[in-house]
Every structure is written in C-alpha cells, then in structure tokens.
Write a structure and sequence with these properties.
With 141 residues, the protein is α/β, with parallel strands linked by helices. The chain has a single domain, classed as P-loop containing nucleotide triphosphate hydrolases (Rossmann fold), CATH 3.40.50. It is 38% helix and 19% strand. The radius of gyration is 15 Å and the shape is globular. The two termini are 28 Å apart.
Amino acid sequence: MLRLILIRGLPGSGKTTLAAKYRDRGFEHCEADSYFMRWNPNLQDYEYKFEPLHLADAHRRCQSVTLRHLMDGKSVVVANTFSQWWEMADYFMMAKETGAVCQIIETPGTPYKNVHGVPDSAINRMLVRWEGYSCYARNEE
C-alpha cells in the first residue's frame, strides 16, 4: 500500500527523528529543511544555513520530490512544521492523485532543543498561528 505520512510540529518537537524511523522502514524522507543543508569542507560535513528568501523554493522542492517518489510507487514521509492546514493541501492532492493513503502525525510540544537555532520568539509566533485538528474538521464540512 502506497503511503504518504505528514509529520507536523514545532521546531524541536522531534519531527526529523520520527521521520528517520520511517526512512529506516523503507520510506523516502523529504523535508524543506534539507534545501538549506550546505557542504562545509572545513568541517567535512553538512551544516544548516537557513535563507529566509528561499523558503518558498525549499517547500516547492520538497513537494516536487515527494510527488516524484509517489509517482514512482514509493511511500514517503514528509516532516515540516505545517502549522496551518493549507500548508498540507498540496500533499493531500498528491495523495489523492497517486492513490496514496495519507496519514498526519503531530509531534507533541517541544521537548528537544531545536537544532536549527530557531529563536523562541519565532516558535511562539508559530504556536499562535497553529491550527489543530478541529480547524481541519471545520474546513471539511
């Protein structure tokens, strides 16, 4: 069965950690954050370099890669903040178009230190605009 799992939560809530468990089970793993990973030859490793002006590009690439995997018959897990339901709308359409079963997993709170250095003030703004399941149910009526 083809599956699309959307993991949503605030920075530091364990989205990437949870997505990695699905990747280990054979899912393709996509995140907008991967767009901002850059090779640092001094560290001989990748490091995160967020560029706010490219956020829309990062999400478009995540959507494009997700659709390509689904069309290839591969199940996908996507881990993004998804603070509002409209941010998942394109993924819902992808699932419908490809016949994938779509599941949403919400990570609880922010028990971890976010690894991208998102300031508390930005996390608080995300929390204020957060739409829970009751909003989604209302939109489906």
